[in-house]
Amino acid sequence: MRTHQLVLQWIEDQLSSGELSLGGRLPAERTLAEQLQVSRTSVREAIRILEAMGVVRAGVGSGPDAGTVVIADPTAALGSALRLHVATSHLPVADIVQTRVLLESWAVARARTDSPALAEAAALLEKMEACRDTDDFLALDVRFHLALAEAAGNVVVSAMMGSLREAIQSYAGKLTANLPDWDATAARLRSEHRGILAALNNHDGGRAAELVAAHIEGYYKEAGLGPKDSDPAQPQP
Amino acid sequence: MRTHQLVLQWIEDQLSSGELSLGGRLPAERTLAEQLQVSRTSVREAIRILEAMGVVRAGVGSGPDAGTVVIADPTAALGSALRLHVATSHLPVADIVQTRVLLESWAVARARTDSPALAEAAALLEKMEACRDTDDFLALDVRFHLALAEAAGNVVVSAMMGSLREAIQSYAGKLTANLPDWDATAARLRSEHRGILAALNNHDGGRAAELVAAHIEGYYKEAGLGPKDSDPAQPQP
DNA sequence: TAAGGTATGTGGTCCAACCACATCAAGTAC
DNA sequence: GTACTTGATGTGGTTGGACCACATACCTTA
Hints:
CATH architecture of the largest domain in chain A: Up-down Bundle
Oligomer: homodimer
Number of helices of chain A: 11
Strand content of chain A: under 5%
Largest interface: A-B, 60 and 60 residues
CATH class of the largest domain in chain A: Mainly Alpha
CATH superfamily of the largest domain in chain A: GntR ligand-binding domain-like
Strand order of the largest sheet of chain A: 1-2
Number of strands of chain A: 2
């Protein structure tokens, strides 16, 4: 076992046993190195990995924001990993979009009508109505869909949704630039958002799921993404 | 921007531009450090992250297996990340199981009947019929479900399924030890596997999805996992 | 009392050296 | 000529030490 993996194991054990929890601070790098009888380099390599995984955040200086503290950002890890593998051309963008449709459809189908996330989605929709700046609109759009994903109350699904979005963010940006008439598209997106939220308020999760799927697939198809046969219909004998 | 992130960016650019691709080898650490005018330490930190993400594999010595080569193992990254966040108690196991049901149900519902993965699943099922060793049986079971997930032909879904399985592997192992009558459970699992495969061969993906969901949820419930209301039924007005 | 400088502790970076390992090539014994 | 030994080479793995930038807390001084 390589040295940094030993450190990694030690920290993971501390997390599992609860001796280290959210907001907790790791010992200083030099201290930890001495405790585990390894070099500071190895400790740092382990911390780098945890940082990339969204488990800790390293801050210099003194005070409350300094040191290495435990956070919880699963989206960061999944997002970076997906983005890197997209770069290697091993994860087709079409598969990512298809997976996003799958997860988000499921989330809205199971959304709890009284979820605070839905209230947030409604508020975001109001802002989008007034918003005229393209970049601001897209940022609000991201948060809107994220709120939808959170409405089902499944943290894993929310994290995966967020990471998928992050992984193809730059790709989606390029697609948007190809749109012939942004104002018309934005108007359609607003309309579809209203429809989704209306279906949810009407306790019709199934209908909302269909609308979400059409909403996402329609956008990518209009912007020119190659098809991946994402027909949600299931074959029946 | 921290130094190792600069290295990370450089490598990611090489991947995106295609100058580095699957099976390709990175320059030696010392060489790369000199090229980018950074210390070897920073290069190593970047490589560590890529290794944790399942993008590269570092091998010592000489020859074809040596050096840092580009691989493609998205499951590794997602699995480690999920496992770590489970350790921080931020990702409930119930959510992971629920997500697994969601993904695997979708995969079998959209499985292509002529998929090679289905043939592999059938072969694995044959082996499980004869297998009497608990550990071997569980190993085959993992591969069986992985094959099901691959049958839909979506790499992202397959990778996520594999990582979910990996993240809760140790947890599932403990649950198995709690089972009152393993032989009876194993017999039931075999029977359910046959039913799933039969539904698929009958081109009834919807039925197969229902069976898969019941199969997974039934196992965890029997072993004592707390419920997470994973009723797949969608509310209708 | 208020302002400024200093001590302390943190992560960030770099360097130089050494180790373990795996291959390959030259040399050597048969 | 063939087979074995031995060293050279190049890879990542690890270590210790040094210095920097930064942010806070404390202490001195006006």
